[in-house]
Amino acid sequence: MKRSMSNKIIITLMAISMIFILLLAGCSTQTTETDVSYAGPMLDNVLNGIKDKDYAAFSQDFSSSMKSAFTQEQFDAMVTLLESKIGDYEGKTLSGSTVTKNNNQAFTVVVYKAKYSKESGDVQITISFSDDNGKKSIEGLFFNSPNLRK
């Protein structure tokens, strides 16, 4: 029962993140790797937090709304799910990025292709950022792969 609830929480968070990203995709502008140079190190913090099972490291770059939405309990469930389905993180490459606007607020959506030990293909990691007076914050995070969809 507990595992089923954990999976439902993770799936719900993923769905919320994906809806958010799709809503933002309506008005977008392509960006370059230089434009999103902050994204890789911030994603590294997230991925290292997952690897080390360290919620504080995982969430250190989250916006206040993202921290409120993604609790320690949900983090623990996500870590268990990722470890069981896709294994250990091995590396990432930038796939693309775009800037979108929603309600007069700009968001940057960055997509990475990542390698994991139990996944034969790529794991797509989509991460979105807001900018509050020059300070970037993570607003959304979504993992997608064949094994995660099983």
Tally of discrete structural domains: 1
- Gyration radius over CA: 15 Å
Total of DSSP H or I helical runs spanning 4+ residues? 6
Strand order of the largest sheet: 1-2-3-4-5
State the CATH topology.
Nuclear Transport Factor 2, Chain: A
Query: What fraction, in percent, of the residue positions are helical?
Result: 40-55%
Total number of beta strands: 5
Basic shape: globular
Distance between the termini: 18 Å
Percentage of β-strand residues = 25-35%
Question: What are the segments in which pLDDT stays under 50 over at least 5 consecutive residues?
Answer: 22-26
Overall mean pLDDT stands at: 85
**Which structural class do the helices and strands define?**
alpha+beta
Main beta sheet, described?
5 strands, antiparallel
SSE topology sketch:
Elements: H1 2-24, E1 28-30, H2 39-52, H3 55-59, H4 64-69, H5 72-85, E2 89-102, E3 105-116, E4 123-132, E5 135-144, H6 146-149
Antiparallel strand pairs: 1-2, 2-3, 3-4, 4-5
